[in-house]
Amino acid sequence: MSKVSCIKPTDRQAIEWVKEAGSQKRRLVFTDYAELRMKERRIGRRQVLETLQSGRISEPLHQDIRGDWRCNVSWFHAGVRLTVGVVFKLSAKGEWVVIATVFEG
């Protein structure tokens, strides 16, 4: 198994990578935590992908306590504002967009 590390994209790269992940042109991974929260909150993958494709950065790129670079992306889907927590990772196979959590609001 290859080592996965954090990567700091520029603001422009972050937006580009998020939109590519939403249109399935970049590697996208949902954490178990995100999957659980989506199930509890009745949020589907299609809603998340639409948020990634069309959404705006609602919380700017920043480094969290673990050293990961992340941002939040928000978009309205069927009249409800969805926010997707995105983490950027790097492995030998390239850059990854990881969905850390999803919530309404």
Chart the SSEs and their pairings:
Layout: E1 5-6, H1 11-22, E2 28-30, H2 32-41, H3 45-54, E3 56-63, E4 69-77, E5 80-91, E6 94-104
Parallel strand pairs: 2-6
Antiparallel strand pairs: 1-5, 3-4, 4-5, 5-6
Write up what this structure looks like.
The protein is built from 3 helices and 6 strands, in the order E-H-E-H-H-E-E-E-E. The protein is an alpha+beta fold. The protein has a single domain (about 5-105), classed as 2-Layer Sandwich (YaeB-like fold), CATH 3.30.2310.40. Strands 1, 2, 3, 4, 5 and 6 form a 6-stranded mixed sheet that branches. The radius of gyration is 13 Å and the shape is globular.
Short description:
InterPro entries: DUF4258. By secondary structure, this protein is of the alpha+beta class.
Task: State the main characteristics.
single chain, 105 residues, alpha+beta, YaeB-like fold, six-stranded mixed sheet, 43% strand
Helicity level: 25-40%
| Apparent shape | globular
Please give the CATH architecture. 2-Layer Sandwich
Broad CATH class: Alpha Beta
Low-pLDDT parts are: none
**Alpha-carbon distance between the two ends:** 37 Å
Organism: Candidatus Accumulibacter affinis
Protein name: DUF4258 domain-containing protein
InterPro entries: DUF4258
